[in-house]
Design goal:
The complex is a heterodimer of chains A (257) and B (14). Chain A has 257 residues and is mainly beta. Chain A has helices at 9-19, 72-79, 142-152, 210-216, and strands at residues 2-6, 25-31, 34-40, 46-53, 60-62, 66-71, 87-92, 99-105, 112-118, 127-128, 136-141, 158-163, 168-173, 178-183, 197-200, 204-209, 225-230, 236-242, 245-251. Chain B starts with 11 loop residues before the first strand and ends with a strand. Classes of the chains: A mainly beta (257), B mainly beta (14).
Chain lengths: 257, 14
């Protein structure tokens, strides 16, 4: 038996919104420690990795590990039927899970709706992501990162990210001209959500597709801060941390011959 | 812009 009850149902809506543009079908892997998902987009340029800890649910019950193969568009349609303040419970029979039951309860518990989502067999390869000591780790306000991606898309489909000790610089070059945004580290003790920090092993300069980065910023409502981790000749890691877990996006760089 | 690489070039299958 699998059961996971989330008091903040809106969080599940936001999570789904941050994944569904990148991936259409995905396995939710359920175990006694929590729920996780790993999937690449069709072109294998980006990978999304989601992890939700069992402690974030109340209650959480999973007797044995199993996978829920879900069409995210279908799940999204059903999730639209949940109110933003609803408590959401996911239930499935772990021995023969051919459907996922979703229960939406409003705060006063007067209205309860129940939906069944048909599950599918998804044959997805699972990649092992190596532990990486990144050359540069940058924390910044997630809304700022979203704005930079949106702004620079006006100029080009690619962005070069340069990180030094003193600044992170985003540069775009296109047919109409060029644009760049530079951010310096700031520490605002009373407003930590607005601070920018740079941890640097060595300077790094990498080019990425703005279309994908912009897609990743759908995670913005999940966290005030976003973490960017860069290393030469490695995929960029973009992480949004939540109380209950995290969503990580990996983006393969644009590289020269 | 430079050619796009893929995730498979960096992360291996389990």
């Amino acid at each position: 038996m699998f059961e996971a009850r989330l008091t903040q149902g809106a969080l599940l809506k936001r999570l789904l919104d941050s994944v569904k543009e990148l991936v259409t079908d995905a396995n939710f892997d359920c175990s006694e420690t929590g729920i996780s998902l790993q999937a690449m987009d069709n072109s294998h340029v980006a990978l999304v990795s989601l992890s939700l800890r069992a402690e974030g649910f109340n209650p959480y019950r999973c007797d044995r590990g199993f996978s829920l193969g879900v069409n995210l568009n279908s799940l999204n349609k059903i999730m639209k039927c949940a109110g933003n303040e609803d408590v959401i419970t996911l239930k499935a029979d772990d021995s023969s899970a051919d459907s996922l039951c979703l229960l939406f309860e409003n705060s006063s518990n007067e209205r309860v709706s129940e939906y069944e989502l048909k599950l599918m067999d998804i044959d997805q390869e699972h990649l092992s992501i190596p532990e990486t000591d990144y050359d540069a780790t940058v924390m910044m306000p997630s809304a700022e990162f979203q704005r930079i991606c949106r702004d620079l898309m006006v100029v080009s489909e690619s962005v070069t990210i340069d990180v030094s000790k003193d600044e992170i610089k985003f540069t775009a070059e296109g047919e109409l001209g060029t644009g760049n945004v530079k951010l310096k580290p700031t520490s605002t003790i009373d407003k930590p959500e607005e601070s920018i920090t740079i941890e640097l092993g060595q300077t790094v300069s990498l080019q990425f597709s703005l279309k994908y980065l912009s897609n990743f910023t759908r995670g913005t409502p999940l966290s005030d801060q976003v973490m960017l981790c860069l290393s030469d000749n490695m995929p960029l890691l973009v992480e949004y941390k939540m109380d209950i877990g995290y969503i990580r996006y990996y983006l393969a760089p644009k590289v020269g011959d | 812009s430079l050619p796009q690489s893929t995730i498979d070039e960096f992360f291996s299958t389990n």
